[in-house]
Amino acid sequence: MAEKQSAQHDLSLTEEQRHKAMLAEATVQREKQALELQRENILSQKTSHPARRQALEAALKQIEGQLAALD
């Protein structure tokens, strides 16, 4: 199984390419963190109202799809 090589350690890239790749990696990590926080928020909400519960389940499904796409 091949591991992802960090842009910081890829010697075949120029300094500018490494910098851009590192910025892109940081952006993805921030997006993941934001989605994880949203996911935690949804999971912490308790409701007995069926429509609200359905909306939360739909939002959770969307967030989990976005997280999967980032991996």
Question: Care to describe what's here?
Answer:
The protein has 71 residues and is mainly α. Helices cover 72% and strands 0% of the residues. It has two helices and no strands. The protein has helices at residues 15-44, 50-70. The protein is rod-shaped, with a radius of gyration of 18 Å. It starts with 14 loop residues before the first helix and ends with a helix.
Keywords:
mainly alpha
Show the helix and strand layout.
Elements: H1 15-44, H2 50-70
Give a brief outline of the structure.
The protein has 71 residues and is an all-alpha fold. It contains 2 helices and no strands. The protein has helices at 15-44, 50-70.
Largest sheet: none
How far apart the termini lie comes to 15 Å
Overall pLDDT: 88
Which ranges are low-confidence, i.e. pLDDT below 50, for 5 or more consecutive residues?
A: none
Instruction: Bin the helical content.
Output: over 70%
Assembly state (oligomeric):
single chain
Class per helix and strand makeup: mainly alpha
Provide the β-strand percentage band.
Answer: under 5%
Query: What order do the helices and strands follow?
Result: HH
Global outline: rod-shaped
